[in-house]
Amino acid sequence: MSLPVIRNPILRGFNPDPSIVRVGDDYYIAVSTFEWFPGVQIHHSRDLKNWRLLSRPLQRASQLNMLGDPDGCGLWAPCLSYADGRFWLIYTDVKRYGRTTVGGASGASLRDFHNYGVTCETIDGEWSEPIHLNSSGFDPSLFHDDDGRKWLLNQLWDHRPGQNRFAGIVLQEFSPAQGRLVGERKVIFEGASIGLTEAPHLYKRDGWYYLITAEGGTGFGHAVTMARSRTIDGPYELHPDTYLLTSRDRPHAPLQRAGHADLVDTADGETYAVYLVGRPIPNRGRCTLGRETAIQKLVWGQDGWPRTLDGSGDPTLETPAPNLPEHAWPAAPVREDFDAPTLPIDFQWLRTPYPDEIFSLTARPGSLRLYGRETVGSLFRQALVARRQQAHCYSAATTLDFEPAHFQQAAGLICYYNGAKLHYLHVTHDADIGKHLRVMTCIPDSPQADSFTAPIPLAAGPVELRVEVDFERLRFGFRQGGGGWTWLTEVFDASILSDEATAPGAPNFTGAFVGMACQDMSGQGAPADFDWFDYEEREYRAGRPAI
């Protein structure tokens, strides 16, 4: 009889930078959401195999306000822990990304990132008002030592010319009584030779402090590095293999970009690492599904260091499941009818903590109403509600009821990565054609930044919109009044909805979404109503979409 296994990734689609904690028989993983609101996704499991999206804790403007945050900024790398009868959540809000060292990038290397902490007695309750911790770098992590003291770690950013931008991991004590950091900060680890040292997590075992970091950048050179020390402030010695886990220089690995890990022990003492990965489209090498979360069992050697089961450090598609009863969750429905007064949990919107300004589920009961706001490239108030693409092949559709009065009003079905990468099947109007349908595409790495298909006249009344995605191939269709679908002749490049398709130096850390959008650049706020939304993952469908 074969032993039970966990299939990777466990959190599919854009779910990066995992932080895991066990509380009793329950496991929770917090992941980054960047410019998508509400902030932080928390997933729940009882067997480390089956996971459900449980909550997004940062829901109030006082906790997170990302209006104006650039693409790829916002909520970075949360750290979730449990101590003193409550959950602790530490996170970064990035306000400026700045120049990187990538060739062709422009602008200054100055960055703005503010680190905060919130707490709650229950994982899905109302989280506290935030405490500002520091702004010295990103990827903050809170360590609860066994003597009751608490320590904040984060990557230290050095903007000075000639300096290593990633200046190491800094440690400083946090006083819960005073609600602030106390004492001096100290750089405790400057990293291995590959550099770009970030994402610290600290553990204590058998009198050793173990420090995990991510290195090599979050692309194909990513790696999990480990070091240890007898004292919390170092000096730290590197793991004998340097990398605990990586797909760096390992093209055979089916899971690429492996890094940014966190460890958890089961009640029986088994150790598992959760870490981010990417699954490239086979013939394009681009990760439209974004950075996902995988899990892998580790074993501790006689030398006191953990390793993967075969000692290779390779990420694997399968790993042995722990000795726990399997606990599956109900499957999400294909169709969302928008009958409830709150948005289904799989959907998010961009940046604003004031959702009433961009959508309503009660203005027209049974429909999601979007109020036309700013452009699809806006960094402020953009009426765009979408869900993650979580498989390489899927179908999505919706019904749109929208009567635009002029060319500045538009609404439709959008496949979106950010304001520079999208395919938008939208309904609009102009004086010559009247109401019509067309696709706007924004391409990040082409001399022509945007393009439009020829307009297709539409009759008054609702229209159904549909998209079929098969790896890098994307097709749009529509119909009015029932009957068969009319398919646009163009085959669009879905692979641009990825980190890897980019202008030099731009931040790219999210993943492809599919959803609904509405714009009214005249400022009149024209509404668009979406009666339902379908999302269905499927096998590859060769040739034209089924009619």
Protein described:
The protein contains no helices and 40 strands. By secondary structure, the protein is an all-beta fold. Strands 4, 25, 28, 30, 31, 32, 33, 34 and 39 form a 9-stranded antiparallel sheet that branches. A hairpin with a 7-residue loop joins strand 32 and strand 33 (450-452). The chain is globular, with a radius of gyration of 24 Å. The two termini are 44 Å apart.
Topology:
Elements: E1 5-7, E2 19-23, E3 26-31, E4 36-37, E5 41-45, E6 52-55, E7 74-83, E8 86-96, E9 112-120, E10 131-134, E11 141-144, E12 150-157, E13 166-175, E14 180-189, E15 198-205, E16 208-215, E17 223-229, E18 237-246, E19 256-265, E20 271-278, E21 292-300, E22 306-308, E23 318-320, E24 335-336, E25 347-350, E26 359-360, E27 368-371, E28 383-388, E29 393-401, E30 409-418, E31 421-430, E32 434-442, E33 450-452, E34 456-457, E35 463-470, E36 473-479, E37 486-487, E38 492-493, E39 513-520, E40 527-537
Antiparallel strand pairs: 1-23, 2-3, 3-5, 4-25, 5-6, 7-8, 8-9, 9-10, 11-12, 12-13, 13-14, 15-16, 16-17, 17-18, 19-20, 20-21, 21-22, 24-40, 25-28, 26-27, 27-40, 28-39, 29-35, 29-40, 30-31, 30-39, 31-32, 32-33, 32-34, 35-36, 36-37, 36-38
Summarize the structure.
With 547 residues, the chain is an all-beta fold. The chain has strands spanning 5-7, 19-23, 26-31, 36-37, 41-45, 52-55, 74-83, 86-96, 112-120, 131-134, 141-144, 150-157, 166-175, 180-189, 198-205, 208-215, 223-229, 237-246, 256-265, 271-278, 292-300, 306-308, 318-320, 335-336, 347-350, 359-360, 368-371, 383-388, 393-401, 409-418, 421-430, 434-442, 450-452, 456-457, 463-470, 473-479, 486-487, 492-493, 513-520, 527-537.
